[in-house]
Amino acid sequence: MNITDFSPRGYNTIEEALDSAFAVSLLFRTKEPAICVHHAVTHPVLDCKLCQLSLKDLAYRVYEELCEAYFSQQIDHQSEEFVDALIFYNFLARILQKPLNIRMSGFDDPCLNGDQASAVFCLGMAMNTLKNRPWKDQFIYTDRTELFTKLDAFEHFFSQCLAVTFVDERHLIDTIDLKAQVNQFRLVSKY
Question: Tens digit of pLDDT for each residue in 20-33?
Fold first, then answer.
């Protein structure tokens, strides 16, 4: 089952399409074993060691999809992987209660490979602000300003990747919607 087996439902904005994808993501997360059993997946405690592992797990999924897009030789496959990364990142941003700033225009000279590498580095540096580890005895408060500044930088470079990859905003919205439908099918069919 893939996106060619579905039709777009006509969402008007990226946010509407991501709302649909988020609902499906929540259902998927409830099927996975919880890393932190003390706090809800949707309401992590930023300085909790196990919640930080959960956040890093989501970031790793974004990273995986960005890498898969990077090595894809087909634009359709590449765009699907970018949308998978966006869906995972949307989930991460929402549970951090961080407003998403994904845009498709206003860039001087986007460069897919360079912006993709910069996005990966910024996401890695954002996750590096989460310093508490289960094996560490020392407790370190998370610098939320630094975390969100680095996530903003990630969004900037990631937006440039999307602007280069997708024909226009409509193309991105429809692909988000189609991936959400595929994921919903996979969840219901236990794919």
Answer: 999 998 888 777 77
